[in-house]
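Work Package 4 report. The design task specified in the project plan requires that, given a folded chain encoded as structure tokens, an amino acid be chosen for each position. We show below one input record used in the internal validation round.
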């Protein structure tokens, strides 16, 4: 436990050192990034240590400590002194006003950190699943001081993996002095705690941004924001998918007792893939896809990149929201200013880290940043002014290169603003890759030189097909799919809603509430101007011309979808059918959105939307039914969800509060609209990526959607979970009509009563009611509704203007619903889903830990002493000799065997690089380069040949060829252990080398260790 406290103190210190830098970067978040300081500091510090290490600086505990202190100490001192200590005053005010938030954040981190440490103490073994490989990386980097790190399972080669997270943990291991076998079991709890902080911080900031205004920047509505943040922590880090509830309801029996299958929810979806047999015949095989979710990963405790990246992905999400909130008069997006350069460098650093952490996260979260930047450009770009006007000629390229404001002469040209956004995109791409160039120069992608057969025998398409391949078989079912296994037995495979249904429930509810004002009759708020009686009368007879181009676009998309179905009925080539179906996507997406907005703009009569609602309903039904019939069940639902969310992002709200740009003093005036748009971005992105991977997958050693679904569904879980938590707050805020702006219900009633009794006191007309549903803010007791702002504030008889609270209270009275029965039904459904999601964190750990019967501590290597005591003693001896004399270490030969068995335990736990580790993993890591794959195969053969040959000359030549220094002859080499040595088919995987082959080493090598059946030879 002492080691856990040491790690806790170190990460707290890193967060404290990084506090000024974090506050300066997250300038426009309500919590100023306090929830993210530890993650921010760990990333920044590790980057500097790694980058200088790649340039030749030794990677040691001393250099790590010095660089961390110098980096954040010097940077913090500079930031605190700038602008007459403005940042110092901000931090001081934050500590005084938000101390309760700080306390809550620290308690959340400590609680989640200690929770998982307690869980790991029941099952600390570094043995199953991917733990051998992950620990081999961590142990190798923790015990060595040179970069790039040597591959512990392929001596002489650098690690070809996304090892940045392992490097961070190795840095903490060096700094703390904790042995790597214990540090391994501190890693998951640390990442779990940082993930909890990140999830809490993102959603807390979304809710608090609604309440924060320039006139009232302090903590208001902390309870609602805090509770929503806790819901986000549960959603991202704790809840299981709905399949975990199905398993509990229909358990498998074990001698009459209940057994919870904690593994099964991670394998919800399966592909029934065709395998060519020749002569146009196919056999079909069921191939599982991985549908992990974060709590499953933390329970499994593999420190794999997809889970280690979680807090850093949340850091990027928070950075995207911070970017969206940058006001028009800020210099943060202008590289001419020091603030702009500071902001851009940190943004590029945290975005670029994702490729180094887990490469498939990089395009997803980069896209989120760019989408946020585009939405911001559409909001502020048209109306901002540049104080020192530049000449019109030539300004566009300066803005593209360096950012900054667009002069008033050009602000009416939309393409200029798009050009500025494109320039930002290019700059960020170059910088995010350039900062990590030492990694990119030493890394070869797992994909690109695939050894699977070419799918297309055409020059360009063949090259593309080495990386991507179309999904031409039955895709992910929406809910459930019954298939026939090879043994003829039917089996149900669950689908998309079993994985994400828990979050889609509140998300769809929020979107429905936001769409309703646009569709219900009478309609009149699309352009912000309410209908008057004269315009309404004129527009009653207005008809939408059927010559509109939107009809042709929508009709063509629908025609292509129908054609897709007819081709399926004719049993044509499934690839052609898929391509035709995909061709309909942009036409339907653009056509439906265009048609809807055009109709609503032109038909604003008393009953304008009946025809539109009917048409859209029929179109949606067709998309769903046709998608279902061509085995693409997600076509309609995801397309409809994506179109709806995108329209709500791009279209104006049904009102506008101000025509002024988002200046610093009023940048939160439209905070609800802004936060809603970001919440919808968190919906559009997972819809997009899950739609795409129904069409194509990345070709790796599995040549299936196995890994593609795994990595991208994991990202979708995080995004959906955050959006679902925020959507829950939005729906609850509307449904329960919670108190606006911290006012009590009695205040609202008194306001209404006062106006009734003294109407003369209120001179101007009250604001017109807006149909827009949604909350505008929160307080300690709840949240409130958005209201329709009048063109000017109502004026009292004494000449004073009514304040925002009074306006909100008045609008709240006007919008009170007549019936509330639906909200209790909705809440009942949400409660059931949350309870279903909580089943996994209750039953999963109980089953996985062996019913919490035996606490074993945190040393992940102790199991070796029980199962391989002789090898354990030899490993400890090797580590002792290496600690005394670093030159003692060298490449070591031990036997090689199938993955996921105990082979390579010596190299993994001693830190000595071996000739060849788990072959399947090395084949995957080296899959992008054919020559290296060949080297892997040759080394596998060489290991067995060195042990089995009786020829001293042959053995000596092979040892010299691969530069081996030691030969290990122990438990597995002599087949002296009776552990788990059978594969899934019951075949023995033991090694049975001839005795003559093992004794020959004494003829030409020096015996440096011999004890209890283990011998180590030095060459």
């Amino acid at each position: 436990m002492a080691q856990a406290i040491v790690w806790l103190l170190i990460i707290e210190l890193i967060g404290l050192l990084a506090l000024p830098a974090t506050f300066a970067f997250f300038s426009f978040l309500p919590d100023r990034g306090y929830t993210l300081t530890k993650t921010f500091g760990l990333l920044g510090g590790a980057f500097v240590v790694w980058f200088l290490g790649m340039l030749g600086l030794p990677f040691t505990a001393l250099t790590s400590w010095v660089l961390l202190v110098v980096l954040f100490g010097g940077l913090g001192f500079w930031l605190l002194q700038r602008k007459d200590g403005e940042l110092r005053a901000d931090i001081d005010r934050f500590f005084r006003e938000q101390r309760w938030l700080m306390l809550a954040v620290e308690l959340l981190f400590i609680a989640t950190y200690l929770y998982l440490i307690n869980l790991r103490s029941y099952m600390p073994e570094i043995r199953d699943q991917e733990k051998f490989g992950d620990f081999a990386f961590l142990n190798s980097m923790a015990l060595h001081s040179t970069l790039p790190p040597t591959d512990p399972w392929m001596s002489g080669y650098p690690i070809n993996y996304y090892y940045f997270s392992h490097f961070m943990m190795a840095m903490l291991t060096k700094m703390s002095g904790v042995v790597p076998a214990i540090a391994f079991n501190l890693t998951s709890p640390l990442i779990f705690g940082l993930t909890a902080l990140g999830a809490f911080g993102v959603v807390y900031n979304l809710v608090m941004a609604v309440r924060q205004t320039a006139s009232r920047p302090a903590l208001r509505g902390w309870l609602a924001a805090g509770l929503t943040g806790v819901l986000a922590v549960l959603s991202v880090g704790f809840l299981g998918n709905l399949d975990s509830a199905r398993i509990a309801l229909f358990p498998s029996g074990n001698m009459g007792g209940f057994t919870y299958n904690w593994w099964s929810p991670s394998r919800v979806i399966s592909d029934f893939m065709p395998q060519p047999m020749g002569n146009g015949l196919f056999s079909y095989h069921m191939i599982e896809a991985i549908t992990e979710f974060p709590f499953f990963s933390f329970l499994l405790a593999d420190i794999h990149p997809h889970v280690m990246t979680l807090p850093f992905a949340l850091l990027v999400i928070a950075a995207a929201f911070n970017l969206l909130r940058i006001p028009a008069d800020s210099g943060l997006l202008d590289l001419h200013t020091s603030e702009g350069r500071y902001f851009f460098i940190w943004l590029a650093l945290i975005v670029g880290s994702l490729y180094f952490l887990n490469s498939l996260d990089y395009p997803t979260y980069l896209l989120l940043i760019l989408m946020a930047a585009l939405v911001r450009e559409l909001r502020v770009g048209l109306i901002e002014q540049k104080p020192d006007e530049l000449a019109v000629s030539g300004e566009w390229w300066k803005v593209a290169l360096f950012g900054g404001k667009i002069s008033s002469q050009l602000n009416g040209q939309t393409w200029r603003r798009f050009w500025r956004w494109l320039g930002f995109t290019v700059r960020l791409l170059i910088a995010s890759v350039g900062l990590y160039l030492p990694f990119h120069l030493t890394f070869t992608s797992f994909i690109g030189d695939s050894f699977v057969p070419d799918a297309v025998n055409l020059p360009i398409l063949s090259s593309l097909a080495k990386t991507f391949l179309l999904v031409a078989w039955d895709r992910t079912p929406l809910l459930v799919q019954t298939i026939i296994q090879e043994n003829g037995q039917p089996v149900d495979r669950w689908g998309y809603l079993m994985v994400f249904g828990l979050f889609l429930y509140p998300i769809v509810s929020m979107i429905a509430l936001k769409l309703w004002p646009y569709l219900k009759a009478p309609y009149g708020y699309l352009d912000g101007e309410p209908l008057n009686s004269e315009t309404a009368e004129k527009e009653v007879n207005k008809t939408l011309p059927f010559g509109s181009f939107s009809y042709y676009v929508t009709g063509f998309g629908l025609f292509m979808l129908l054609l897709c179905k007819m081709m399926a009925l004719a049993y044509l080539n499934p690839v052609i059918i898929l391509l035709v179906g995909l061709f309909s996507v942009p036409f339907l997406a653009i056509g439906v959105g265009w048609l809807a907005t055009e109709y609503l703009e032109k038909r604003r009569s008393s009953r304008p939307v009946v025809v539109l609602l009917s048409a859209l309903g029929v179109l949606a039904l067709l998309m769903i039914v046709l998608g279902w019939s061509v085995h693409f069940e997600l076509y309609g639902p995801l397309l409809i969800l994506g179109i709806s969310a995108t329209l709500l992002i791009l279209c104006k709200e049904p009102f506008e509060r101000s025509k002024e740009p988002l200046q610093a003093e009023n940048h939160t005036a439209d905070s609800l609209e802004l936060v809603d748009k970001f919440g919808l971005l968190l919906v559009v992105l997972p819809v997009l990526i899950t739609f795409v991977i129904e069409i194509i997958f990345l070709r790796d050693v599995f040549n299936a959607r196995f890994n593609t679904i795994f990595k991208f569904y994991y990202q979708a879980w995080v995004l959906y979970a955050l959006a679902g938590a925020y959507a829950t707050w939005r729906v609850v805020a509307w449904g329960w009509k919670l108190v606006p702006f911290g006012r009590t219900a009695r205040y609202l009633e008194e306001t209404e009563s006062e106006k009734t009794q003294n109407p003369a006191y209120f001179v101007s007309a009250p604001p017109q009611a807006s149909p827009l549903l949604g909350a505008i803010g929160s307080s300690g007791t709840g949240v409130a509704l958005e209201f329709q702002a009048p063109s000017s504030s109502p004026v009292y008889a004494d000449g004073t203007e009514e304040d925002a609270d009074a306006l909100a209270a008045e609008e709240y009275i006007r919008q009170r619903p007549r019936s509330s029965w639906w909200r209790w039904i909705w809440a009942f459904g949400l409660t059931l889903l949350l309870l279903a999601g909580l089943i996994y964190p209750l039953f999963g750990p109980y089953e996985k830990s062996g019913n919490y019967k035996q606490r074993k501590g945190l040393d992940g290597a102790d199991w070796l002493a029980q199962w391989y005591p002789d090898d354990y003693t030899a490993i400890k001896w090797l580590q002792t000799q290496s600690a005394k004399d670093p030159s003692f270490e060298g490449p070591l030969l031990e036997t090689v065997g199938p993955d996921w068995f105990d082979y390579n335990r010596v190299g993994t736990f001693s830190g000595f690089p071996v000739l060849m580790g788990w072959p399947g993993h090395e084949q995957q890591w080296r899959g992008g380069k054919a020559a290296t794959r060949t080297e892997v195969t040759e080394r596998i053969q060489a290991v067995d040949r060195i042990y089995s040959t009786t020829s001293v000359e042959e053995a000596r030549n092979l040892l010299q060829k691969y530069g081996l220094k030691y030969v290990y002859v122990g438990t597995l080499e002599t087949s002296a252990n009776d552990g788990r040595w059978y594969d899934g088919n019951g075949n023995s995987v033991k090694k049975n080398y001839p005795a003559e082959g093992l004794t020959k080493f004494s003829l030409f090598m020096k015996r440096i260790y011999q004890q209890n059946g283990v011998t180590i030879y030095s060459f």
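The chain has a mean pLDDT of 79. Validation will be extended to a larger panel in the next phase.
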